[in-house]
Design goal:
- The protein has one helix at 4-45, and strands at 101-104, 108-111, 120-124, 129-135, 141-146, 153-156, 160-163, 188-193, 196-201, 211-222, 225-233, 237-241, 251-258, 261-262, 266-267.
- The strands form four sheets. It has a five-stranded antiparallel sheet with strand order 6-5-4-1-7, with no helix packed on it. Strands 10, 11, 13, 14 and 15 form a five-stranded antiparallel sheet that branches. Strands 8-9-12 form a three-stranded antiparallel sheet, with no helix packed on it.
- Among the domains are: 101-168, SH3 Domains (SH3 type barrels); 188-267, Immunoglobulin-like, CATH 2.60.40.
- By secondary structure, the protein is of the alpha+beta class.
- It has one helix and 15 strands; from the N terminus they run αβββββββββββββββ.
- The protein is 15% helix and 31% strand.
- The termini are far apart.
């Protein structure tokens, strides 16, 4: 029994020592794991190192404003002229000239000139109305515009009942319808016997239908005044009365007449 006790004791001791080592190992391993965990945890909890900003004192340059006086151009005050107000012109109504009027008293011939020597232009009848646009020097013939036709012609003042003053209208020059169907007279001759002046010319041949004779417009001396007259003839000669005593010379124009109008005139030269 004594021999067994020491072995048993020894086994217990060995077992106890082994358990102690195992416990120590476990303890070391556990402690190591704990330390590692704690180290990680402590590392995680370690404060982040914040770089410290060191403020250096920098000398800031002082900006000194230098005021430079630049001469400024002084504007000269310009006097603005006061606009002139132009008055608006007043429109004045110009009265329209009122031509004298006429009413035809009886049937009358209205002609191309102020005498019976001129061709017929239009027929006027009692009651026809005309406006009086012109006159001859004496006012014995009037240049009228009949309201029923579109052109003007000459009528004797004695054939009209006139309203107004015919001497308010101008002396109207004679405008004859021109014809080139026949040529003008080529040669004229004039002789005097006292106050009688006879004019002759070479005849112009015309058809019977066209032939309307000849027209003479003359300025003749009568009672010391040069007087205008017109004469018609179917022959190639005509005699005028031409007195002496006028300051201006007498004269005459000769036309060939056909039913459509008048040729160019030729002056009777020389006047005796």
């Amino acid at each position: 029994m004594r021999n067994d006790q020491p072995w048993g004791k020894t086994r217990k001791t060995i077992l106890k020592n082994n358990l102690a080592r195992i416990a120590m190992t476990v303890l070391v391993i556990g402690a190591s794991g704990i330390l590692q965990s704690c180290g990680s945890f402590l590392l995680y909890l370690s404060p982040t190192t914040t770089p410290s900003v060191t403020t250096s004192s920098t000398n800031t340059p002082t900006i000194t404003a230098t005021i430079t006086l630049t001469p400024t151009q002084t504007s000269t005050e310009t006097e603005t002229p006061t606009p002139t107000i132009t008055p608006t012109p007043t429109i004045s109504l110009t009265p329209t000239f009122d031509y004298p009027d006429g009413i035809v008293l009886e049937q009358a011939n209205c002609r191309y000139g102020p005498a019976v020597a001129y061709l017929f232009a239009a027929g006027l009848y009692a009651g026809d109305k005309v406006e009086i646009w012109g006159r001859n020097q004496s006012g014995s013939w009037l240049w009228v515009h009949p309201l029923k036709i579109k052109y003007q012609c000459w009528v004797a003042a004695s054939m009209l009942d006139i309203s107004g003053d015919v001497f308010t209208v101008w002396v109207q020059p004679v405008r004859l319808p021109h014809s080139t169907l026949y040529g003008p007279v080529q040669h004229t001759y004039a002789t005097r016997n006292g106050d009688q002046v006879t004019i002759a010319w070479d005849p112009i041949s015309r058809t019977v239908d066209d032939d309307r004779g000849y027209l003479l417009e003359a300025n003749l001396c009568k009672n010391g005044i040069l007087t205008w007259v017109a004469a018609h003839t179917d022959t190639n000669t005509y005699t005028f009365t031409d007195e002496s005593g006028c300051s201006s010379p007498s004269s005459a124009l000769l036309y060939v007449v056909e039913k459509h109008g008048y040729t160019d005139p030729i002056q009777v030269l020389p006047w005796p």
